[in-house]
Amino acid sequence: MNELDWPRWPNEVAAGYRRDGLWTGETFGEVLRARAREHPDRVALAAKEGAVTYGALDRRADRLCAALAGLGLRRGDRVLVQLPNIVELGEVLFALLRLGAVPVLALPPLRSSELVQLGEISEASAYFVAARAGGFDYRKLAREVRDRVPSLKHVIVVGDAEELVPLRELDAEPVDLPGPDAQDLAVLQLSGGTTAVPKLIPRTHADYLYCARVCRAASGFDSSSVYLAALPAVHNFPLISPGVLGALDAGARAVLAPLPSPDVVFPLIESEKVTHTSVVPPLALIWLNAAASGSVPGHDLSSLRVLQVGGAKCSAEVARRIRPTLGCTLQQAFGMAEGLINFTRLDDPDEAIVWTQGRPISPADEIRVVDDEDRDVPDGEPGHLLARGPYTIRGYYRAAAHNARAFTADGFYRTGDVVSRRADGNLVVEGRAKDQINRGGEKIAPEEVENHLLAHPSVFDASVVSMPDEYLGERACAYVVPHGEPPAPRELLGFLRGRGLAAYKIPDRVEFVSELPQTGVGKISKKDLRDRASARAAGVQEVDSDTVKL
Ligand code: OOB
C-alpha cells in the first residue's frame, strides 16, 4: 500500500502513544492467538447457526488465512466485507486481520452504487457476501459489483455460492506468513459522509485495540461479561465500542443477533445471559415498549447491566425509561467511526446520564469546542466539536483534498457536530453543521442522493434535507424542480432504487417545487428548505397538490 494513501499521526505523537503504553505492539491476529492459548474451549462467538470457541476460531482463521494467501491475497490488499451477523463474519475478519489484508466494512443495506464506489476507491481485490440475508440475494449484487470494479478478482460466498467461490471450501494447511505491524491498517470503516463519494476511514490495529480497551473500561466490561451485537456488527458502535472485537480481546463471549427486534433479542439476552448491548434510539424505544407491554412475554432480562444508546441523540424521555423498564444502566454513546467516543459513565448522576451525551473515554482525547473562526467558546455555549487523539484519524483514505477541509492544520478532526460542554465535562449534542441527515442513526449524505436524482431526465434541480420525525429523529425530504412534466414520485423513487442506492437513503418524501430558495450568494438555501420541511412535518403548512407524501 502506498505511504501516501492515508495520513499517519506525526512520528513524535505516535512515539508518545507507544511510550505511554496506549498503543501496544499487538495486532488483532496476535490477540486472538493469545486468547485461544489462554482458554481454547471458551465460546468466543455465538450466533443463530451455532457457536465457535476461541480455539476453533483461531484455527479457522489460520486455515482461511492460508487459503486466501493461496488465492493470491497479500498483506495490504483491500477486501470488501458485507456480511450479516453470522459466525463467519468473525472467521473472515480474523483471517484477513491475520493476513494483514484490510477489510472494507460495508453495511448489509448498501447496494451496487455504494459497493462499486467502495470497490473503486479501495481497489479491492475480493468481496465477501452471504448468499442470502434479510430476504436479499447478495450473489446477484456481488456479480454486478464484480463486473463494474476491474480490481475485483474474487467473490466469496457464505452459503450456496452457485458459480462463485464458497467460503467453506477455502481451507488450507496454515502457513507462516509475515503478519501486519500494529501501526498498519486493520480495517477501513465507512464514514457517515457528507459528500457524493463515500469516505473511507483508516483504522490501525494499535488505535482500534486501544479504542476497544478504553471503551471496555468505561462500560464495566470484563472477561466475564457477554456482549450482544443487535445492530449490524460491522458498524463501529457494535464492533469496537467495545462491541464484538472488544469482547473477543477481553476473552469474553460475543453473541450475534440476526435481527434487532425484541422477539429475537429478548430470548437471546435470557439464554446467553447478555450483560452489555448497544442500540440506536429508535430501537431503544421499541425494546422499551415491548418490555413494558409484555408483548414478548416471559423473558428474563435481569442479566443485562448496560444498555448503550447512541448513533443519534437519545431523547430524555427515552433515557429516563431505561432503568425502570429494562432494569439496567443507560450509557449514552456519542461516537464516530473517525474515532472519538464519548460515554456517560455508569456511576454518573442520573441527571447527567439522562441529559448529556457523555465525555471522551480516554484522558488522551483532546477536544475543542470552537466558533466559526476556530476560537474556543466558553463552557455552556454551542460550538463546533473538534477532536484529536490516540484513536482519532488524521485523515481519510485517499482523500487529500477533502482532508484539507475536514481537519485543522494541527490535526484536529472537524466532527461537524455542534455541542456544548458543561462544567462537569459532559457534552450535549445541540445540532450539526455538516450537511448530513441522521435517520435514526443511519447517516445519509444529501449530496449523494441529489446526484442520483439529477441523473433522472425529468429532474432539473434537487435538494435533499432533513425533516423532523418523532420516531427516527429525522427523515429525508427531497425538493425537486422538474424539467417539464414532473415524474410520478413512485417512478422517481424506483429510479433511485434501480441505481443501486441503499433503501434507507431513498427520500421519505418528495416535493415538487418551481424553484429552490437561494441564499444571498446564490447557493441553495438548505436552511429555508429545512424550515419548510419541519413546518410541514409539524402540520403548520397545508399540504398542497404538488406535495406527494410517500
Ligand atoms: C456512530 O458513528 P457514525 O460514524 O455512524 O456517525 C457519527 C455521527 C456523529 O458525528 C454524530 O453526528 C452522530 O453520528 N452521533 C450522535 C450520537 N452518536 C453519534 N449524535 C447525537 N447523539 C449521539 N449519541 O454513530 C457511533 C460510533 C461509535 C459509537 C457510537 C456511535
From TrEMBL:
Gene3D superfamilies: 3.30.300.30, 3.40.50.980, Luciferase, Domain 3
Domain AMP-dependent synthetase/ligase: 33-397
One Pfam entry name: AMP-binding
Cross-referenced SUPFAM superfamilies: Acetyl-CoA synthetase-like
UniProt domain AMP-binding enzyme C-terminal: residue ranges: 448-523
Top-level taxonomic group: Bacteria
PANTHER family reported for this sequence: LONG-CHAIN-FATTY-ACID--COA LIGASE (PTHR43767), NONRIBOSOMAL PEPTIDE SYNTHASE PES1 (EUROFUNG)-RELATED (PTHR43767:SF1)
UniProt protein name: (2,3-dihydroxybenzoyl)adenylate synthase
